[in-house]
C-alpha cells in the first residue's frame, strides 16, 4: 500500500471511529437517562401498580349539653367479616372453583361462563362461613352473590361483612366460639348513639352515609384508593356543624400482590375524632318539657330561652322520633313510619301558626306607641264588638277593662277596639320591628321564611283586594292572615320582658368573646311605667284569677299570656293552645313558649288548660337549679 492509499485508508478509519464514538455516546446517554433520570418515574409507576391506599373516616365528634353531658356520641358497631385477601380465604376460593370445574367436566356439562362459575364458587365458600355464624347465633342470614361480586371488583382490600350490626351478646358469643384460625373475624367500627333517644331529636338531627370525601393533601393521592363509607349530617346540629363534627380521615398504604390483595402495610396514619360541639340545651329542662308533653299534648312545640344570653335551653317538637332508629342507617320501614306520622318537621322553627292571643301584646304595644291609648284607657266589654255587618265575639262579658285587666282576662273586645283605633299598618310595623316577619337566624338549618305579617299593601299585592275593618279586628287578636313560628313568639316574649328587641338566638353555648360581639338589641321604646303596666298584666295572667294559673311556680313571679287560635279547615276548625311567658317578672331570666295542636275538629282547646301546664314543668326545673332567682311576689308588686 503506497503512502497515498495508506493516508486515505487511515482517514476513512478515523471517520469510522468518530461515527462509532458518536453512536456509543448516544447509546450511553440513553442508558444514563433511562437508568438515572427516568428511574424515579419508573419507581413511581411501580408503586402505582404495586401499592394501594385505604381510607378510613375518623369518628365524629360528640354533641354535649351546656353542662357537658353527652347528647350524641359514638358507640361500637360489631360485625362478623371476612377479609377476602387472606391466604386461607383465597385458597378456599381457588379450591372450590377447581372442584366446581372438575365436577362440571366429569358430568359432561359445558361451562359457558367461567366468570359466573368463579362468582358462584366464592358465594358458596362465604355461605359456608356464614352458616357457622348463623348456627352460633340462631340467625338466618343469606349470602348475596351479586354483592360479593361488587365487593371484589370495587373494594377487594376492605372486609366483606357477613353479618352487620351484631348485638353485644352476639359479639360475645362469636368471640368465645370462633376458633383462632377461623377466616371469620370480628370487626369493630363506630356508629352514632343517642343516649336520650327521642329528646332533642329535631334539633340534634341524624347522619347518613355516602362516599368518603378525599382531600387532595392526603398521602398516596396517585394510588388506587379504597374507602369505607363516610358519614354526613342529614339534619339539625349534625348537618349545620357537619364540618366541625367530621373526623380526620385515616390513611393506610399497602403493598399488594399481582391479584391486588394485601401483602403488608408500609404507611399508616390513624384517623382522628372530630370536634365536640357544646350546645346551649340543658337536658334537665328538655326532659321536663318532654314530661309535660307526655301528659298534656301529642302535637306541637316547646322552646325555652335564656333571655340574657339568648341561648336555647330546651327545644322540642312533637311528634318526634327515636334517633337510635336512624343508626347505623335508617331503613325504608323506619323512614316510612316517621314520614306517615309527620314527625320529621321541627315545628319549633318550621311550623307556621296563627299566634292568637299572644299577639295582643303587639297590638297593645302598637296602640301605646301610636298614642291612641295609654295604660289607663278603658273600653267596655259586652261580649263582642260590631264591625260592619259582623259581630266579633269575646269569650266573656268583662265590663270595664283597662290594659292590665284586658291582658289578664284576654278580653277580645278590648283589643278589637284598640286595634281598630291603632290601624293595621301600625300593628304590622310593630310586628316587623319585633322580627315576626322574618326568620330568627338561629344556627339551625331549614328555619322557615314563609311567615306572614300582613298589611294593607301586602293584601293588595297578594290578593288584589282592599283591607277591611274586619281584617283589622282579626289581626288585633292574632287571627286572620298572621302566621308565626313558635321560636318567633319565644323571642317576642323575651323582648317584651326586657323592653328590648332581640334577634339571632343560638343553640350553641356562647363563649364570652362570642357574647361580646353578638348583635346589640334594639330598644322596644316603651316608657318605664307603660312597660311595667304590660308586665303587670302578664303577671296577673299567671295568678289564681288569671288564664294561666296552671303555670304558677311557688316563690317565683311568672308573667305570661295564653291564647287559643283557630286553623280553618273544610270540615271545621282545629284549635291551637298557646302559652308564652317569662320569669321572674322583676328580673327576667327565662322565656318559654308552648304550643299544643288540637287533635279533633271543633274541639274546645285552651292555652291555660293545655299549654301553660307544660311550661310550668320547665319553669320548675329551671328554678330548682337556680333558686337564687326566686323572689317573693310582693317584691315586684311593690314596684308598680
Count of individual beta strands? 22
| CATH architecture annotation name of the largest domain | 3-Layer(aba) Sandwich
Helix content: 40-55%
Low-confidence stretches: 635-640
Determine Rg (CA atoms, Å). 37 Å
Explain this structure.
The protein has 23 helices and 22 strands. It has 640 residues and is α+β, with helices and mostly antiparallel strands. It folds into two domains: 227 residues, Penicillin-binding protein 2a (Domain 2), CATH 3.90.1310.10; 328 residues, DD-peptidase/beta-lactamase superfamily (Beta-lactamase), CATH 3.40.710.10. Strands 2, 3, 4, 5 and 11 form a five-stranded mixed β-sheet that branches. Strands 13-12-22-21-20 form a five-stranded antiparallel β-sheet, with helices on both faces. The C terminus is likely disordered.
Amino acid at each position: 500500500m503506497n503512502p497515498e492509499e495508506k493516508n486515505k485508508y487511515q482517514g476513512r478509519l478515523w471517520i469510522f471511529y468518530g461515527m462509532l464514538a458518536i453512536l456509543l455516546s448516544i447509546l450511553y446517554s440513553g442508558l444514563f437517562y433511562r437508568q438515572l433520570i427516568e428511574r424515579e418515574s419508573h419507581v413511581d409507576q411501580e408503586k402505582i401498580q404495586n401499592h394501594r391506599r385505604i381510607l378510613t373516616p375518623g369518628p365524629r365528634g360528640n354533641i354535649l349539653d351546656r353542662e357537658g353531658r353527652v347528647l350524641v356520641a359514638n358507640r361500637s358497631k360489631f360485625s362478623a367479616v371476612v377479609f377476602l385477601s387472606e391466604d386461607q380465604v383465597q385458597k378456599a376460593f381457588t379450591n372450590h372453583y377447581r372442584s366446581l370445574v372438575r365436577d362440571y367436566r366429569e358430568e359432561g356439562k359445558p361451562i359457558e361462563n367461567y366468570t359466573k362459575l368463579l362468582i358462584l364458587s366464592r358465594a358458596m365458600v362465604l355461605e359456608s362461613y356464614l352458616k357457622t355464624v348463623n348456627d352460633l347465633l340462631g340467625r338466618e342470614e343469606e349470602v348475596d352473590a351479586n354483592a360479593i361480586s361488587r365487593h371484589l371488583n370495587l373494594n377487594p382490600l376492605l372486609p366483606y361483612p357477613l353479618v352487620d350490626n351484631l348485638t353485644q351478646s352476639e359479639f360475645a358469643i362469636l368471640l368465645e366460639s370462633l376458633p383462632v384460625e377461623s377466616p371469620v373475624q370480628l370487626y369493630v367500627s363506630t356508629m352514632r348513639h343517642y343516649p336520650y333517644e327521642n329528646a332533642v331529636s329535631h334539633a340534634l338531627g341524624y347522619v347518613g352515609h355516602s362516599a368518603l370525601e378525599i382531600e387532595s393533601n392526603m398521602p398516596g393521592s396517585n394510588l388506587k384508593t379504597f374507602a369505607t363509607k363516610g358519614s354526613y349530617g342529614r339534619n339539625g346540629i349534625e348537618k349545620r356543624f357537619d364540618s366541625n363534627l367530621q373526623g380526620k380521615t385515616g390513611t393506610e398504604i399497602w403493598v399488594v400482590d399481582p391479584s391486588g390483595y394485601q401483602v403488608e402495610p408500609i404507611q399508616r396514619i390513624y384517623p382522628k375524632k372530630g370536634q365536640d360541639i357544646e350546645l346551649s340545651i340543658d337536658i334537665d329542662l328538655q326532659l321536663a318539657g318532654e314530661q309535660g308533653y307526655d301528659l298534656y299534648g301529642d302535637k306541637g312545640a316547646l322552646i325555652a330561652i335564656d333571655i340574657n344570653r339568648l341561648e336555647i335551653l330546651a327545644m322540642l317538637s312533637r311528634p318526634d322520633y327515636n334517633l337510635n332508629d336512624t343508626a347505623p342507617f335508617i331503613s325504608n320501614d323506619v323512614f316510612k313510619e316517621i314520614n306517615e306520622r309527620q314527625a320529621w318537621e321541627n315545628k319549633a322553627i318550621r311550623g307556621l301558626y296563627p299566634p292568637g292571643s299572644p299577639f295582643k301584646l303587639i297590638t297593645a304595644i302598637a296602640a301605646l306607641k301610636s298614642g291612641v291609648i295609654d295604660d289607663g284607657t278603658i273600653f267596655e266589654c259586652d261580649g263582642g264588638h260590631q264591625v260592619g255587618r259582623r259581630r266579633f265575639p269575646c269569650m266573656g262579658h268583662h265590663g270595664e277593662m283597662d290594659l292590665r285587666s284586658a291582658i289578664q282576662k284576654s278580653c277580645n273586645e278590648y283589643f278589637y277596639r284598640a286595634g281598630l283605633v291603632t290601624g293595621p299598618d301600625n300593628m304590622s310595623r310593630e310586628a316587623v320591628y319585633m322580627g315576626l316577619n322574618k326568620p330568627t337566624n338561629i344556627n339551625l338549618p331549614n328555619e322557615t321564611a314563609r311567615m306572614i305579617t300582613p298589611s294593607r299593601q301586602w293584601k293588595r299585592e297578594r290578593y288584589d283586594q282592599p283591607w277591611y275593618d274586619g281584617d283589622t279586628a282579626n289581626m288585633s287578636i292574632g287571627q286572620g292572615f298572621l302566621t308565626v313560628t313558635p321560636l318567633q313568639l319565644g323571642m317576642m316574649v323575651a323582648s317584651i320582658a326586657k323592653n328590648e328587641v332581640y334577634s339571632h338566638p343560638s343553640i350553641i353555648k356562647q363563649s364570652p368573646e362570642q357574647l361580646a360581639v353578638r348583635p346589640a338589641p334594639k330598644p322596644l321604646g316603651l316608657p318605664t311605667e307603660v312597660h311595667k303596666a304590660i308586665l303587670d298584666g302578664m303577671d296577673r295572667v299567671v295568678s289564681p284569677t288569671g288564664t294561666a294559673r296552671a303555670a304558677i311556680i311557688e316563690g317565683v313571679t311568672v308573667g305570661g299570656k295564653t291564647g287559643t287560635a283557630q286553623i280553618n279547615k273544610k270540615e271545621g276548625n282545629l284549635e291551637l293552645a298557646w302559652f308564652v311567658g317569662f320569669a321572674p317578672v322583676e328580673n327576667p331570666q327565662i322565656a318559654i313558649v308552648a304550643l299544643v295542636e288540637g287533635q279533633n275538629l271543633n274541639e274546645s282547646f285552651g292555652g291555660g288548660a293545655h299549654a301553660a301546664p307544660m311550661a310550668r314543668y320547665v319553669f320548675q326545673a329551671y328554678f330548682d337549679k337556680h333558686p337564687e332567682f326566686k323572689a317573693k311576689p310582693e317584691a315586684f308588686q311593690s314596684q308598680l
